[in-house]
Design goal:
Helix content: 25-40%
Strand order of the largest sheet: 3-4-2-1-5-6-7
CATH topology of the largest domain: Carbamate kinase
Order of helices and strands: EHHEHHEHHEHEHHEHEHEHEEEHHE
Strand content: 15-25%
CATH superfamily of the largest domain: Acetylglutamate kinase-like
Number of domains: 2
Structural class: alpha/beta
CATH architecture of the largest domain: 3-Layer(aba) Sandwich
CATH class of the largest domain: Alpha Beta
């Protein structure tokens, strides 16, 4: 472990809490000891942690299934946030570390200026020797501005600070080739070099009753991190010395190694990939997909085979192939209505149409506003 590398550790509610939903203080103490050890080895550490809602539900006496109405979840987050922050402060303080709380929503990252301010805040906290504890601001989040899971938030934070490694501490050992709770022969996949359709398929499934994520959200995070040049390890949070071992390069859980150097993906593209939620989906034909992936081309409307969602000019959209595999994301230069009118027409037909002529050669998604998930 070399000097001043940066590590993002994401912890889910099911790992952080007991069966009754209470903060597991003993576990937090062991986590703090591990963080102290990697900091002494030269790492700067950011924690992305769930837990406020679970703490609040327990304090409010709401047992059983997690509520699904937003006001109750927001109220629980408000009640639980103090318990959540206090638990981290006490555990890490006992190991001589100062923690801070950073609450984010998509609103804080959808605007590029706010995105950069969030980055500067985290950078300064690390410079001051603080261990930032980042969580989604569940008290004020609504569906339109929620990250939806802290796997996505963890990937965003890793990209924000240019992390050298992202570790997801989960309630599972890693990615399996089947469902281990249903298939006794399911095997742990120790390394994933390419995130293709088969990997997405085996990752299907929801998270626990205490959290909102699942393995599929972790795979989506891994796809963006790979493009950003940031390795990801998914492992059991209850594994002894999981953080120390993963940071030192030992084989732990499932490793998604970096396939690109970080400087090859611009901050703007990282913002497009994770900083804003997609407003729609564009399906492209095989010719357009090859041009985007192999030649680094921009997306033209003649390559569009279908559209979903209600997006307008300037929105972020997901881009998938005709088999439904999402392989890119970008910012569009036209809204859905225009794209629907233009798609299916040849270049010559567009040129002859006075209403659509501008779209004949104008990129629907310029390559500078496009990120490919390889």
């Amino acid at each position: 472990m070399s000097s001043q590398k940066r590590l993002v550790v994401k912890i889910g509610s099911s790992t952080l809490t007991t069966e009754t939903g209470r903060i597991d203080h003993e576990y937090l103490s062991t986590l703090a000891e591990q963080v102290r050890a990697v900091r002494e080895a030269g790492w700067q550490v950011v924690i992305v942690s769930s837990g406020a809602i679970a703490c609040g539900l327990e304090r409010l006496g709401m047992k059983g299934d997690r509520p699904d109405d937003m006001p109750t979840l927001q109220a629980a987050a408000s009640v639980g946030q103090g318990l959540f922050v206090s638990a981290y402060g006490d555990a890490f303080g006992a190991c001589g570390m100062i923690t801070s709380l950073v609450l984010l929503t998509r609103r804080d990252t959808a605007d590029r200026t706010a995105y950069l301010h969030a980055r500067d805040t985290l950078e300064r906290l690390l410079d001051l020797g603080v261990v930032p504890i980042v969580n989604e601001n569940d008290t004020v989040s609504v569906e339109q501005i929620r990250f939806g899971d802290n796997d996505t938030l963890g990937a965003l934070v890793a990209c924000l600070i240019g992390a050298d490694l992202n570790i997801i501490l989960s309630d599972v050992d890693g990615l399996y080739d089947g469902n281990p709770s249903e298939d006794a022969n399911a095997q742990l996949i120790k390394r994933v070099d390419i995130i293709d359709q088969s990997v997405v398929h085996v990752a299907g499934g929801a998270g626990t009753s205490k959290g909102s994520g699942g393995m599929i959200t972790k795979i989506k995070a891994a796809r963006v991190l790979a493009a950003a040049g940031i390795p990801l390890v998914i492992c059991s949070g209850r594994l002894e010395n999981a953080v120390v071992d993963a940071a030192s390069g030992k084989e732990v859980g499932t490793l998604f190694p970096a396939t690109h150097k970080a400087h090859e993906i611009t901050p703007r593209k990282l913002w497009i990939a994770l900083g804003d939620s997609a407003r729609g989906v564009i399906t492209v034909d095989e010719g357009a997909k090859r041009a985007l992936e192999r030649r680094g081309s921009s997306l033209l409307v003649v390559g569009v085979a279908g559209v979903e969602g209600d997006f307008i000019e300037g929105d972020i959209v997901d881009i998938q192939d005709t088999a439904g595999y999402l392989f890119a994301r970008g910012r569009v230069s036209a809204g859905r209505d225009e794209v629907e009118l233009a798609m299916g027409r040849t270049h010559e037909e567009l040129v002859r149409n006075r209403l659509l002529a501008e779209m004949a050669d104008k990129p629907l998604v310029h390559r500078d506003d496009l990120i490919i998930f390889e």
